[in-house]
Amino acid sequence: MTTDKLRIAAIDLGTNSFHMIIVEENKEKGIVEIDRVKDMICIGRGSISTKMLDEEAMQAGVAALKNFLVLAAQHGVAPENVLAFATSAIREASNRGDFLRRVRLETGLKVKVISGKEEAEFIYYGVRNAVKIGRTPDLLFDIGGGSVEFVLVDKNGVQLLESRKIGVARMRERFVTMEPISPHEIKMLEQFFAAELVSAVKKAAELKVSRAVASSGTAQNIARMIHSMHGRTIEGSLNNSTFSRKEFQALYKAVLPLGAAERKKMTGLDEKRVDLIVPGLILVDMIFRLFKLEQILISDSALREGMVLHYLKRRTRVAEKPGDELAPDIRRESVYELGFRCDWNRQHAEYIAWLSLLLFDKLAALHKLDAHYRELLEYAALLHNIGGFISISSHHKHSQYIVMNGELRGFSPSEIAIIGNVVRYHRKSPPSEKHVAYSQLKPAHKRAVDVLTGLLRLANGLERGHRQNIQEIDVVVSGSALTLRLHSAFEPDIEIWAADLLKPWLETVLQKTITIEPF
């Protein structure tokens, strides 16, 4: 059995870099990230062709692991809860045993070397905990230094787990000899990628895959460069952000003709990926073309997060295979976890959410918003008061800040922006172009925020007494008049009084005069 709180560190010994993530599992708050660290060791430097780990790289790797373990201990992670998995470069090295023995002797850390298929499986666990997948057939891919993992998944679960030796460090070492890369070398890479992707492309065509989800530093770096090209800056997580084939092509055409010195000057490009970005771009271009994709979505969770989730399932003796049922509703889980982290009043939040959805459904013919916005209204209602965790004064603004920066899983940036704005306007002033977060929304999203805000404000008024008095609402529409008749357990005097104060914005949005009365 697990304790109420458990801290775990997961270390990924990759071809290009060593990563560690430290998380805390809490029964109510879920899995909360405590810290993460990365060191670009390049343990695979030169080993792709020689099959031998470089002595200098091994020394740097051991030193990095020592630092990781000190950090983990400082965060209260017990030695037995430190996981360490090695992937492509170490997996293939002839002297891997020497390196792993050195690690064990000098750090006490026992590193498990995982197969390519196991790596793909862990990546699947990690991605599905950050992105809602499987409603339609999805391609998941993770670009590493030595290998690239492909997962095909649909509503019935995982349909393909594959690991191919086409990682960016391996491809650069094997094919790239010139700066800038020559057309001949580009063609060689394209032909090699096409040959390696045959089985995944065939299976994806059978499943009618319509979307791709990319994890890994290479994919995230490409996304940041694209955002930079369009003058957009994303400081935090890229999770659930997207880039289109057209946007990618613009970046591809801008970068490929450049030499390393020119690439270093590009905004958004990690200086340690200056060389690796070239084969990475060519691979992503081929993935767009061969899988006939129009858009790629980013997941910021992958191998390390999957390692943690798999460990927790084993620890609680919950068996699961890649083909088993898909992940629980990560969006709802994430909302509830954020609520618990902010010490919310769950009962009150859930009742406000019920009232909000009741109003959404009853007034559907007037607002004409689809079910997607209904879901976002529910989550905004559940989180509308979490800002009280910081201060009751201006708690609506604090709530918006927490939503926007709370790393909600499974939501696109635009969805988080909608939820954050609805939360912001549940009290005090209504939506305004003077406020930056609202002014930056697309017109359709502004209209949705206007409607959802009106509904949440009214629901908030109808629970002013905190007694869950309203049990049903009848709606009568007559011309420009809208009457809400309340079924209640007690005389709804305080609820009508509060709702009357908060109804003007919804009246403006729906262009109706609203009367609220007891049934």
Total discrete domains:
3
Number of strands: 14
Major beta sheet, strand line-up: 8-7-6-9-11-10
Question: Considering DSSP H and I runs of 4 or more, what fraction of the residues is helical?
Answer: 40-55%
CATH superfamily of the largest domain: Hypothetical protein af1432
Count of helical regions: 23
What's the pLDDT, averaged over the residues? Answer: 92
CATH topology name of the largest domain, in short, is Hypothetical protein af1432
- Main sheet record: 6 strands, mixed
List unreliable stretches of 5+ residues: none
Quote the beta fraction.
15-25%
Overall radius of gyration: 26 Å
- What is the oligomeric state here? single chain
CATH first level of the largest domain: Mainly Alpha
Structural class: alpha/beta
The 3D shape can be described as elongated
What does this entry look like structurally?
It is a single chain. With 519 residues, this protein is an alpha/beta fold. The chain has helices spanning 47-50, 55-74, 88-92, 96-107, 116-128, 168-175, 183-196, 198-207, 217-229, 245-255, 260-264, 277-290, 303-315, 330-341, 346-362, 364-367, 371-383, 395-405, 413-424, 436-439, 443-462, 493-502, 504-510, and strands at 5-13, 18-26, 30-39, 82-86, 112-113, 138-143, 148-154, 157-164, 211-215, 242-244, 295-298, 470-478, 481-488, 513-518. Strand 1 (5-13) and strand 2 (18-26) form a beta hairpin. Helix 6 (168-175) crosses helix 12 (277-290), helix 7 crosses helix 12 (277-290) and helix 10 (245-255) packs antiparallel against helix 12 (277-290).
